[in-house]
């Protein structure tokens, strides 16, 4: 495991078989540096990210993208897609408040992005809630997303192409670990990198599995954080499209670091939302070291229990 970000690279293959990653896998000790490097690259390029998303998530998603250094655009009318989508750096599609009209826009945008060589990512929010959603997602998969990010219940359902029974809307009823095999199978069938979020985030290309351990339990108490992280993944892959597994793991890890740092200053979900955005803005390795010492001497002491902080400190 990389000490700085908590990312673990696990060749998760049957005994005796050599995993065949879609991209060369970084050695364990280079993931931390890579995450900061990609965040820096994102800030320099300020990629334009189109998001066709649910009405709950628009504000948080746009603010998370801005704080990370990307340029969000929540344009969703089907009449604008031919003009706008070919020029974006990546597209994020999220089915959270799906409608017939919305789905038509999503399909047109995904097809346009793909034709223009722009990567797009899918967030299959509440895919188990209705046949309408499941069929919509299965249709979107045919348009070849670069990355699919969902919670464990969503990935389990989508991988089996059937609604799972014990699901409860937009939140997960399963642990991320329970969906690792499903994620691998979905990745192989769709050709996409698949990320399952949870206490540990797992990211796979169908052959190897990478884990990212950053984050805070309280993040689940803020609606649309999953949606926001999917948009952040779109931003990361736009600057490193040929290394989508790496970019996806780094995006999840950086978001988790911002959540851990934000939680040091937050009193609950509402203030965490604010501090998470503040933390992401301008976050880099040096800032993190400064905050580590600040909270070490003047904070609650909770920082000592966080893998990231202890790891970063030891790493340096
Ligand atoms: N138990 C947990 N502990 C720490 N972080 C978590 C936990 N559950 C989810 N997260 C984080 O919250 C964010 C949203 O993930 P999740 O809640 O799984 O997605 P969704 O909101 O789509 O259901 C991710 O960054 C994930 O790492
Ligand atoms: C509450 C809700 N209802 C429809 S979409 C949505 C937001 C879901 O956001 P997330 O998947 O990030 O929790
Ligand atoms: Mg979600």
From TrEMBL:
Pfam families according to UniProt: HK
Record EC number: 2.7.1.50
Reactions the enzyme catalyzes: 5-(2-hydroxyethyl)-4-methylthiazole + ATP = 4-methyl-5-(2-phosphooxyethyl)-thiazole + ADP + H(+)
Keyword Lipoprotein: no
GO biological process, one term: thiamine salvage
Single GO MF descriptor: ATP binding
Biological role: Thiazole kinase involved in thiamine salvage pathway.
Family per record: Belongs to the Thz kinase family.
Protein name: Hydroxyethylthiazole kinase
